[in-house]
Structure to design on (341 residues):
């Protein structure tokens, strides 16, 4: 807190923020509470004034007055993987404007563990819960959990039987596979993730659909990894020994990294001999050798949609059980090219 010659400066209050931003007291309140009906420029002006003044809402006093804690709970599993970790980051960024976030990471995603996590959050007075769930057991656990607050799932595919937001895995996989087929490859091998994960299932569906709709190519057998570079490396040794393999779509970038190394060890050049496309666009993918063509996921938009849906439910606003999936984007680099004649 700043000080003056006469002693410590008065702690800034909401009215000071409103005056500096040139808005009403109610508008500042809406920004702090994450209300969606605030123009982006107005929101930026209010946040800039908050930073300039060093304004800090008194959470305890506000909770006593309003009966609200402005706290959200997030339940996740295996946040060491890029996808769940990025979803968590996107949710935290989206919540900065009006909510604090409490996180718990579960070692196992069974019904008992999920219910215990929900109960702990309820004891802390959270107003809503977001669950990052990509495994089928997690989805099954969620549907049986009793809760007194709204629950929204993230990353659980586009057909979840509860409120959810998701990346359009099918469209992303279709784009990646179609790109390889349009380059002239007669078919595309798929290195998928575990069949228990909804992401892997939907990406397999998009891959198979592209093969059917583009020339009617028969879908080869899926090679399943576990999302790790090691599993991609082990599968890569098998695929490298098959001279007919000219194009491979990997369900994530880590498995693509392992695949690239295995192909190199067998003398198969990328993309001259084998074209490779991944999924995720992890920060390192542009620095693979060669730089990886991949499908980018907009995790920040996913976090915004999850928070928006949860706030709608917390405010009692009705709406569809699932939002339109977040569209992915194909990022073209140099790991894919035309096959040799």
């Amino acid at each position: 807190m700043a000080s003056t010659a006469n002693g410590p400066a008065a702690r800034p209050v909401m009215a000071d923020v409103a005056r500096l931003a040139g808005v009403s007291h109610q508008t500042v309140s809406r920004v702090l509470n994450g209300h969606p009906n605030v123009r982006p420029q107005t929101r930026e002006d209010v946040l800039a004034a908050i930073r300039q003044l060093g304004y800090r809402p008194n959470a305890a006093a506000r909770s006593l007055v309003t009966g609200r804690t402005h706290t959200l709970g997030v339940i996740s599993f295996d946040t060491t993987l890029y996808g769940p970790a990025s979803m968590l980051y996107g949710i935290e960024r989206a919540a900065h404007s009006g909510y604090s976030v409490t996180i718990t990471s579960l070692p196992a995603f069974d019904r008992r563990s999920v219910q215990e996590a929900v109960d702990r959050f309820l004891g802390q007075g959270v107003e809503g819960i977001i669950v990052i769930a990509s495994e089928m057991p997690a989805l099954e656990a969620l549907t049986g959990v009793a809760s007194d607050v709204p629950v929204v799932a993230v990353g659980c595919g586009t057909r979840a039987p509860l409120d959810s937001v998701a990346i359009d895995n099918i469209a992303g996989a279709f784009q990646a596979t179609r790109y390889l087929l349009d380059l002239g490859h007669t078919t595309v091998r798929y290195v998928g993730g575990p069949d228990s994960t909804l992401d892997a299932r939907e990406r397999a569906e998009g891959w198979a659909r592209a093969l059917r709709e583009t020339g009617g190519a028969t879908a080869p057998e899926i090679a399943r990894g576990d999302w790790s570079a090691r599993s991609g490396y082990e599968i890569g040794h098998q695929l490298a020994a098959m001279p007919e393999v000219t194009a491979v779509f990997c369900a994530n970038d880590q498995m693509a990294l392992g695949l690239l190394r295995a192909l190199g060890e067998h003398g198969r050049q990328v993309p001259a001999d084998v074209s490779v496309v991944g999924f995720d666009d992890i920060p390192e993918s542009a620095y693979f050798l060669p730089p990886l063509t991949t499908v980018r996921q907009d995790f920040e938009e996913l976090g915004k949609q999850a928070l928006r849906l949860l706030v709608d439910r917390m405010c009692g606003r009705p709406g569809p059980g699932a939002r339109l999936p977040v569209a992915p984007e194909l990022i073209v680099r140099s790991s894919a090219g035309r096959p040799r004649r």
The first strand starts at residue 3 and ends at 4. The mean pLDDT is 84. The CA atoms of residues 25 and 51 lie 17 Å apart. Residues 198-213 form the longest helix (16 residues).
